[in-house]
């Protein structure tokens, strides 16, 4: 089952960490130009960028045994990828509810809206 993770829950987790969160994975599935324009840039949140179109080819770069938060602009593409990964053996999956738009509005207004 894919769970929804709010941007506040993610921000609290990142801020509470004493270093990079390595027991979880953070996957941004947006296009390269989107990722360059607006991304979560926090040393405790090591985000892996794999565009949606190539996730099927690169899913082996992810650990199916670790919790995985999937990120996109609004939460739609990330949910599609989370469903795909669930069908391919990934266990604990989270969709970042509201995506980078919610992150910008609620957590970090320095991240551009687009």
TrEMBL record:
<dbReference type="InterPro" id="IPR001763">
    <property type="entry name" value="Rhodanese-like_dom"/>
</dbReference>
<dbReference type="InterPro" id="IPR050229">
    <property type="entry name" value="GlpE_sulfurtransferase"/>
</dbReference>
<keyword id="KW-0808">Transferase</keyword>
<dbReference type="Pfam" id="PF00581">
    <property type="entry name" value="Rhodanese"/>
</dbReference>
<dbReference type="GO" id="GO:0016740">
    <property type="term" value="F:transferase activity"/>
</dbReference>
<protein>
    <submittedName>
        <fullName>Rhodanese-related sulfurtransferase</fullName>
    </submittedName>
</protein>
<feature type="domain" description="Rhodanese">
    <location>
        <begin position="20"/>
        <end position="112"/>
    </location>
</feature>
<dbReference type="InterPro" id="IPR036873">
    <property type="entry name" value="Rhodanese-like_dom_sf"/>
</dbReference>
